[in-house]
Specification:
Elements (H helix, E strand, L loop, with lengths): L1 E3 L6 E3 L5 H10 L12 E5 L2 E7 L4 E4 L4 H11 L15
Antiparallel strand pairs: 1-2, 3-4, 4-5
């Protein structure tokens, strides 16, 4: 569902990933240099945050639970030179 945010004039989508959201990302989600236009994207499963992309896609966080998931993500990132580094953080 697309929401109006009159306070910040940002475009806000909330709810399940919809056709409208996907069309917006595909058709108008990137600037002329291929950078993400969205300041932040958050994906949740229920109350659990799975993915956060901030500062127009320059800082992304993927919340993983196992070493195997971390290893797979690290290997996947090696395919894309634009990904300059992968930092690992563990909850205490």
């Amino acid at each position: 569902m697309q929401l109006e945010n009159i306070e910040t004039t940002e475009l806000v989508f909330q709810g399940s990933i919809s056709e409208v959201f996907m069309e917006h990302i595909y058709e108008d989600g990137f600037d002329e240099n291929g950078g993400l236009k969205c300041f932040a994207i958050n994906f949740y499963q229920g109350e659990e945050l799975l993915f956060h992309s901030g500062h127009y896609g320059t800082e992304s966080y993927v919340f993983l639970k196992t070493e195997e998931e971390v290893h797979k993500l690290e290997q996947w990132c090696k395919q894309y030179p634009i990904i300059s580094r992968v930092d690992r953080y563990e909850e205490l």
